[in-house]
Amino acid sequence: MKDYIIVIGGGLAGCESAYQIAKRGINVKLYEMKPSVFSPAHSNSNLAEIVCSNSFKSNAITNACGLLKEELRRLDSLLIRCADETSVPAGQALAVDREKFSDLVTSEINKLDNVEIIREEFNKEIDDNCITVIATGPLTSEKMEKQILKLTGKDKLYFYDAVAPIIDKSSINMDIAFYGDRYGRQGDNSYINLPFTKEEYQKFYDALINAEVVNLHEFEKKEIFEGCMPIEVMAKRGEDTIRFGPLKPVGFIDPRTNVRPYAIVQLRQDNEAGTLYNMVGFQTNLKFGEQKRVFSMIPGLENAEFVKYGVMHRNTYINSPSLLNNTFNLKNKPNIFFAGQITGVEGYVESIASGLSAGINATKIYNNDVPMIFSDETVIGALSKYISSPNKRFQPMNANFGILPPLEEKIKDKQERYKKQAERSLKSINKF
Ligand SMILES: Cc1cc2nc3c(=O)[nH]c(=O)nc-3n(C[C@H](O)[C@H](O)[C@H](O)COP(=O)(O)OP(=O)(O)OC[C@H]3O[C@@H](n4cnc5c(N)ncnc54)[C@H](O)[C@@H]3O)c2cc1C
Fold first, then answer.
1. Do the beta carbons of residue 76 and residue 360 sit within 8 Å?
2. Ligand 1 atom having least distance to the Cα of 57
3. Mean pLDDT of 183-204
4. Distance CA 379, CA 393 (A)
5. Beta bridge partners of 213
6. Reported confidence tier of residue 211, pLDDT bands at 50, 70, 90
7. d(CA 360, ligand 1 centre) in Å
8. CA-to-CA distance for 79 and 85, rounded, in angstroms?
């Protein structure tokens, strides 16, 4: 076994991993391909570059991402500390000055005597005699993709262009929605159906085709529209196009009215616990605020809580449920860890969290020590569990309360419920 740990990728997850390993006294070789090679979204040569929005989302612990940040603060995350130190005013949210943030992370990593930063694209075969953390991100270089395929024995990496929104089941109005499959194959809860009248459909349709969309990067435009058509693009082809496509009502009778709806939106169960449902066929590029406004016009979704909005961008990730343990290392090659967006966590803070967990657990393997498994009552633990649990339709996931186990007591008020879940999580984190 080598007397150092390799971390590949000096992004959010890789830097957090490198810090967690180095602070535990182990030497790190950190590979970063910038500035000789840049992904289509990266543009400065610092480590931990923020590629898009400068927001790390809410700081409130009654928000799952806010709670995750608080867990990370208590676990001594370098990147959350740097984000706090370079924050700019943004109300309840933690937003950073992106240049200062990546400058600070780079200088903090540079200060660590036992981290060697190697500025080159890693494209060698990965040696499982050396503990390695692969954190090359959603835009992993092509050469590295090939190495990962060899390592995982898969013929392709998961690659999605578009993801539909995900809704918290408890926020769906079940007085309007009904369970069941097309042609009345009822009896299971895997689909929830939202029936439209003609009038409701027309109002929704008008809002959909006029809603504001996100500007895509040039490199994304071509790939996305070849792969998967956003609902709003399909809708613009004609008033009935989506009614004959993903919203087709064929085979459905509304059990309350005994009438065939004019159109129907289907929601499909998204997690094992049945607490989350995704919107079938609703890949979208609408701005988040527009998704809330327009999709809340769908009957039954008036008060829907979107735990995740639809997004469209290139994203490379491995099939973690079949490959990874909840400690982010390969089931069949435990010396090899993955961290960041490539594991199927989604978002800046989530990537940092997986980097922290992978880094700590890489040191545990190095020291022949027992792994550090966070309780699934914490957001960091729930994310680790999510990416490593069986899931036939695995898709990246961000922090949300739907992946945490419910409380023993039933609390109707959402804020009160989240507060109790947050207290439970922080109590558990304090033990570490
Ligand atoms: C276009 C785009 C926009 C996004 N916008 C947001 C957003 O607004 N908010 C949000 O929360 N999340 C966003 N994400 C998702 C995600 O949170 C970020 O991509 C995040 O940076 C992921 O962290 P990471 O550490 O996994 O990867 P990255 O931060 O991308 O780090 C990976 C690093 O690995 C390096 N690298 C790659 N291959 C090699 C190699 N072979 N050898 C050496 N180095 C290599 C890269 O240069 C990079 O520095 C976005 C993703 C994309 C692609």
1. no
2. 11
3. 84
4. 21
5. 286
6. very high
7. 21
8. 10
Provide the CATH topology of domain 163-312.
Elongation Factor Tu (Ef-tu); domain 3 (2.40.30)
Tokens of 366: 């190095």
* Distance between Cα 364 and ligand 1 center (Å): 26
Residue, of 272 and 205, whose pLDDT is higher? 205
* 139 Cβ inside 6 Å of ligand 1: yes
Instruction: Tell me how far the alpha carbon of residue 121 lies from the centroid of ligand 1, in angstroms.
Output: 15
The reply to whether ligand 1 has any atom less than 6 angstroms from the CB of 118 is: no
Average pLDDT of the residues of the chain: 91
Place of tokens 């680790």: 384
| Ligand 1 pocket residue status of 34, Cβ below 6 Å | yes
Domain 4-157+316-430 has CATH 3.40.980.10: no
Q: What pLDDT, on the 0 to 100 scale, is given for residue 225?
A: 47
Per-residue pLDDT reduced to its tens digit, 312-360: 777 889 999 999 999 999 999 999 999 999 999 999 999 999 999 999 9
pLDDT of amino acid 244: 94
What tokens were used for 203? 């109002």
Q: Which pLDDT does position 416 carry in this prediction?
A: 94
Nearest CA to ligand 1 atom 11: 347
Position 198 confidence tier, pLDDT thresholds 50, 70, 90: very high
Record the tokens describing residue 222, joined without a space. 């071509």
pLDDT of residue 187: 57
**Whether the CB of 381 sits within 6 Å of ligand 1:** no
CATH 3.50.50.60 boundaries in the chain = 4-157+316-430
**Residue extent(s) of CATH 2.40.30.260 domains in the chain:** 163-312
Q: Name the nearest CA neighbour of 6 among 138, 151, 106, 117.
A: 117
**Ligand 1 pocket, residue 36 CB under 6 Å:** no
Distance CA 432, CA 329 (A): 20
Reference 301, options 316, 291, 287; nearest CA is 291
